[in-house]
Amino acid sequence: MSTHDAIVVGGGLVGTAIAYGLVKQGLSTLLLDEGDVAHRASRGNFGLVWVQSKGLGAPHYQRWTRGSAEEWPALAQELAERTGLDTALHQPGGLHICLSEEEFEARANYMARLQREAGNLGLEYRMLRHAEVKEMMPGIGKAVVGASWTPYDGHASPLYLLRGLHAAFREAGGVYQPNAKVEDSTAAPGDFSVTAGGGTHRAPRLVLAAGLGNLELAPRFGLSAPVRPQRGEVLVTERTRTLLPMPTTTVRQTDEGSVMMGDSKEEAGYDSLTQTPGIMRGMARRAVLSFPWIAELNIVRAWSALRIMSPDGLPIYEQSARFPGAFTANCHSGVTLAGAHANRLAPMIAAGELPPEMAPFSARRFDDVRTAA
């Protein structure tokens, strides 16, 4: 049996960011990773570090997302210094493109409400008409009526982020075990053992960050993780010269020059392999209406992947009341929230308590819904 200060179950973006943060807090940490047989959202992520579409009706989520975006530059620099890997972070602001007056009006109302709910935090944004968008994005199409813009948004490479977090975790002294699906476990307050990968491991702290796997794991430790899969599809073009100076909600250009198109939302169960021509056609059509020059590029890759969605789409963070020391972390924004997970959530877990401001993220918010059902 190996003994550690903390065990993190889940080697994707969420689990690895938390594990890295725990190691930085001085905790000997074991990271258990089921491996590529898992429904790994991290490898299909679109790569946005996004603020302007987060937290309507949930100011606590808006604050959490903004805080994470603020943590990102320091995290990217840390990872580069520790590992030599560039996560390709760029935060020039971002645009949400509107292709009709109805879309523009709806977006303006959305952003105005988001700003009101921000309260003392404030929210800087602008609603831009076609001419102003064209100044920012010279290649936009005539179909673009306008856009919303905020200065907080950006994008990064999900794959380099995942690789960087893993490398930094190990460099800082963390222990990584791949191909280690949880087979058995025991729980007592402040005392947890997990059998995985042919061995048994023990720690006073346990973090469940296994994505869709948390649905089955959480109840073992007195926790609830009512998550479901939601499929998204992505199209990728051949490389071209830099033509997009900033990302949009559905189109971004990578450091390597590829253009990515995404943002589909499908309730397709655990099917992460199927791709739907009609959905791909719709994504490509909207991208070409927004940026006509995309029509001249060849599509070279396409994939689908599964998001981790809670009933209201917001993250779930909670410590077990029955078995203190066991935590769960669930979200569909592993790139955006990497800064918060490494630099804000991990210190809370290391201290053994989630502060009151984290209470709205508890799965207990779904109790009334479950009771009614």
From TrEMBL:
Keywords: Oxidoreductase. Its EC number is 1.-.-.-. It is an enzyme of class 1 (oxidoreductase). Pfam families: DAO. The lineage of its organism: Bacteria, Pseudomonadati, Pseudomonadota, Alphaproteobacteria, Acetobacterales. It comes from Roseomonas gilardii. InterPro entries: FAD-dep_OxRdtase (IPR006076), FAD/NAD-bd_sf (IPR036188). One of its GO terms (molecular function) is oxidoreductase activity. Residues 5-346 form the FAD dependent oxidoreductase domain. This is FAD-dependent oxidoreductase.
